Amino acid sequence: MKVKTTRFGELELNPSDIITFHDGLLGFDQLTKYFVVDPGDSTLILWLQSIEDEKVAFPIIEPKIFKPDYIAKLLPADLNGLELETLSNAKLYSILTIPANVVEMSANLKAPVVINSAKKVAKQIVLADSKLTVKHEMYKELKTYIVNFSSDDSKRTNFAPSIALEAGDLRSSKENYARLTNEM
Amino acid sequence: MLVLTRKLGESIAIDDHIKIVVVQIKGKQVRLGIKAPKETKIHREEVYQAIHDQNVAAVQVNMDDISRLGEELKKK
């Protein structure tokens, strides 16, 4: 299928790549269908492009790139609707805000986007950790990463998992939570 | 919206497992205690507002700025 986008023109999309946000994203409740665009440029930024509104595209990035120690601690309730059977299917991204003064770019560490890459459902999750902010400046760290590593693609993808379940909170009797605990 | 009047120390029960207690009243501030199952998500409303505003700001990105960012990031 063809999808019109304001930023990338008309794109060819395989319907199986459509990602559903059942709850939308905060401020965009009505938009539930997205897909990931990788422009393949040097910034390592991907885009979460809406199918229903061509103007809406969120720049996203894997937070491990600029903050290797970042771990999203998810509560069992966070997994509701994500249909995750194993955490290894979960992909984690931070939404970026990029102003005209690009060195002031920031990442939302407080509310990352979690995508179940197998089931193609996703959710923006508000983390409980009160030290995380919605506006974490990270230009310097991203630049350091790109200058040092981006020429070597093999180093890009092998990050340690950036999602953890709050172990003490696994009280739910739901079967899939139990399964997740066993795997951890 | 349901509006209830409560005195200091009194509480409200929501469903079977959530309890909200008025812990302290001091001038214009009310301290609330919340008892809920671990999986219940509780945040100050401002947190959601901040995320909402950040999402709205994020989609306003200009592609010229992205190109410039790409150039800046590559510079040694």
Structure commentary:
- Chain A has about 180 residues and is mostly beta strands.
- Chain A has two helices and 13 strands.
- Chain A has helices at about 140-150, 175-184, and strands at about 1-5, 10, 20, 35, 45-50, 55-60, 70-75, 90-95, 105, 115, 120-125, 135, 165.
- A seven-stranded mixed β-barrel of chain A has the order 3-4-5-6-8-10-11. In chain A, strands 1-2 form a two-stranded antiparallel ribbon. A two-stranded parallel ribbon of chain A has the order 7-13.
- Chain A starts with a strand and ends with a helix.
- Mean pLDDT of chain A is about 85; it is low at about 165-184.
- Chain B is of the alpha+beta class.
- Chain B has one domain.
- Chain B has two helices and three strands, in the order βββαα.
- Chain B has helices at about 45-60, 65-75; strands spanning about 10-15, 20-25, 30-35.
- Chain B has a three-stranded antiparallel sheet, with no helix packed on it.
- The termini of chain B are far apart.
- The mean pLDDT of chain B is about 95.
- The chains are: A mainly beta (about 180), B alpha+beta (about 80).
List the helices and strands and how they pair.
The complex is a heterodimer of chains A (184) and B (76).
Chain A lengths: L1 E4 L3 E4 L6 E3 L11 E5 L8 E5 L6 E5 L10 E3 L15 E8 L8 E2 L5 E4 L4 E4 L11 E2 L1 H11 L13 E3 L9 H9 L1
Chain B lengths: L10 E4 L3 E9 L2 E7 L9 H14 L4 H12 L2
Antiparallel strand pairs in B: 1-2, 2-3
Poorly predicted ranges of chain B (pLDDT <50, ≥5 residues)? none
The rough form of chain A would be described as globular
Compute the average pLDDT of chain A: 85
Q: What is the terminal-to-terminal distance of chain B?
A: 57 Å
Question: Based on the structure, what is the oligomeric state of the protein chains?
Answer: heterodimer
Give the strand order, joined by hyphens, for the main sheet of chain B: 1-2-3
> Largest sheet of chain B, described in full?
3 strands, antiparallel
Distance between the termini of chain A: 39 Å
Number of strands of chain A: 13
Radius of gyration of chain A: 17 Å
- DSSP strand content of chain A: 25-35%
Give the C-level CATH assignment of chain A: Mainly Beta
Sheet of most strands of chain A? 7 strands, mixed, barrel
The second-level CATH architecture of chain A is Roll
Order of helices and strands of chain B: EEEHH
Shape assignment of chain B: elongated
The CATH H-level homologous superfamily of chain A: BH3618-like
